[in-house]
Write a structure and sequence with these properties.
- By secondary structure, this protein is mainly α.
- 46% of the residues lie in helices and 11% in strands.
- The protein contains seven helices and six strands; from the N terminus they run ββαββαβαβαααα.
- Helix 5 runs antiparallel to helix 6.
- The longest helix has 16 residues, at 124-139.
- The chain starts with 22 loop residues before the first strand and ends in a 9-residue tail after the last helix.
- The model has no long low-confidence stretch (mean pLDDT 89).
């Protein structure tokens, strides 16, 4: 067997560009490719019965796609997950920061959609700038990230929505976001 081509698996921020927040809803086993999908999303909601594992070491493969984990979980935990291939529970995934929210299996979709609703309540350009700030910050050092984040926020600050937010707050009403 040869080394798989980089384009074999669509990996966000590598072979796929995403512009909107993504939320994984995990109910069951998220092993190998399932872990990749959950990891690739911006946020992750898991049912209490979900399990996670990067199992490649158990089948003689590798997981280069797991490298962004270093920005999500501590190094020693990442090392253990990748070196052993052992599964972790949804509770453990939550404790280490891989999962944002836990839900009972029957409430999983509602919990994920509720999180999406919280994001949708924000000003679209602000959400976009916040997402870009997080992604830029994982790619560079502190000073460079501050410069890049300021640049990513310019569209937001110069928008009509930037004026609407304070007006709505002062008037004690919900803002009417226009996305420009």
């Amino acid at each position: 067997m040869t080394v798989p081509p980089r384009t074999l698996i669509p990996v966000p921020y590598d072979t796929v560009e995403l512009s909107k927040p993504t939320i994984a809803a995990v109910n069951g086993a998220a092993f190998a490719g399932g872990w990749l999908i959950a990891q690739s999303c911006d946020l992750c909601v898991a049912s209490t019965g979900a399990t996670f594992a990067v199992t490649e070491v158990k089948v003689g493969r590798s997981s280069p796609w797991a490298s962004p984990l270093i920005h999500m979980i501590p190094q020693r935990i990442m090392m253990e997950i990748l070196l052993t291939g052992n599964r972790i529970t949804a509770q453990r995934a939550y404790e280490i920061g891989l999962v944002n929210r836990l839900a009972e299996p029957g409430d999983l979709l509602a919990t994920a959609l509720g999180l999406a609703g919280e994001i949708l309540a924000g000003a679209p350009l602000s959400v976009r700038a916040a997402r870009e700030t997080v992604m830029l910050s994982t790619e560079m050092g502190r000073s460079a990230a501050l410069v890049a984040a300021r640049h990513a926020s310019e569209l937001c600050y110069n928008s009509e929505d930037a004026q609407e937010g304070p007006r709505a707050f002062a008037a004690k009403r919900a803002p009417q976001w226009r996305g420009h």
